[in-house]
Give the backbone structure.
Amino acid sequence: MKHLLMKIYKGLYDAYGPRHWWPGETPFEVMVGAILTQNTSWKNVEKAIGRLKENGLLSSTKIRRLRRNQLASLIRSSGYYRIKAERLKAFVNFLFEHYDGNLNRMRKEEIKTLREKLLRVKGIGLETADSILLYGLQKPIFVVDAYTKRILSRLGIVPEKASYEAIQNLFMNHLPHDERLFNEYHALFVHLGKTVCKKSPECDICPIKGIEHRA
Ligand code: SF4
């Protein structure tokens, strides 16, 4: 399995190169993006983050002080903005309650404990928690999303209905726990899923078409 997973990685990396993912100027911005991107396109998230920036409000202290309806109106473009405002507030409150608002302190927490804590924050699910850990805090954990699932099931590596954990374990159990590798691998899957392995896949131009598809 390790050989196969690395072959896929290499095929994608050779074709697309480094993806410089996740876009964001600071770890906090990455975390905000991870929360806002649920059920919406990245373009809409960028607009919402842009508005927070324009108003000088993209910091944990500022978001903590903002009223929920003010925050909701600022992030309106990200969709489900009332729910997302609540989620952002919940996350920021968590950050202050557990780490005095200090991301370096948060980063020092052991990954398993931190993940469990994040998953207890209202509105933070598996993919969001893992994105915060990997892209916000450079912790070595594999992020699974709909693209990952679709590509791997088309390759016949996992069943179509495989759980998040089952897919994540595949990578965690067979690859070195290397944050850079996990960062790049997930980003390459996102790129492939968006541009080639779409709902209707364009297999002719796929850089991993030569890899045996068991499905
Ligand atoms: S060959 Fe086709 S199905 Fe397989 S990963 Fe590429 S685009 Fe998807």
